[in-house]
Design brief:
Layout (H helix, E strand, L loop, with lengths): L1 H12 L6 E6 L2 E7 L2 H4 L6 H13 L7 E7 L3 H9 L4 E6 L24 E3 L4 H21 L4
Parallel strand pairs: 3-4, 4-5
Antiparallel strand pairs: 1-2, 1-3
Helix pairs in contact: 1-5
């Protein structure tokens, strides 16, 4: 989770929503990424999507059966779906997202009955640090908005 937090800080420094992710196989980091939605002008450029895509290329297989994804915020439905489809073994996340999370927050797509694969889930890992990065980022955004006369 250390590296995922480093990635989240990189995202924040670039003005991106501060989410970082790493994909690990056999204890070694295969890929790492942070949100790049604004930088790439791509709504799908979430940290989790980027590590899954890069890992498939790196490993030469779309099946990531032995992979664990560490991510600072509970995955959204898009990211959870990508991890299920790529057969990620385990997802470990920090901050919960009760409104939009798809690993048990708003719904649990990672273990949805009827899908052909279910990911193991471990939640709340370094949750306070992960939440704090997000809280600070959005607090700063609100200040910038009010300073610019936005409401």
């Amino acid at each position: 989770m250390d590296e995922a937090l480093r990635q989240a800080r990189k995202a924040a420094a670039k003005g991106e929503v501060p989410v970082g992710a790493v994909l690990v196989v056999n204890g070694a980091i295969v890929t790492r990424a942070h949100n790049q939605v604004e930088e790439l002008k791509d709504a799908t450029a979430h940290a989790e999507m980027l590590v899954v895509t890069a890992a498939a290329g790196e490993m030469g297989d779309w099946r990531l059966n032995e992979a664990t994804v560490y991510v600072t915020k509970e995955p959204c439905p898009m990211c959870a779906g990508a991890m299920v489809l790529s057969r990620v073994k385990k997802v470990v996340y920090g901050a919960a997202d009760p409104k939009g999370g798809a690993a048990g927050g708003a719904l649990n797509l990672l273990q949805f009955e009827g899908l052909n694969h279910k990911c193991e889930i471990r939640s709340g890992v370094r949750a306070e640090e992960c939440r704090e990065i997000l809280r600070e980022f959005f607090q700063e955004r609100r200040k910038e908005g009010s300073a610019n006369g936005e409401s």
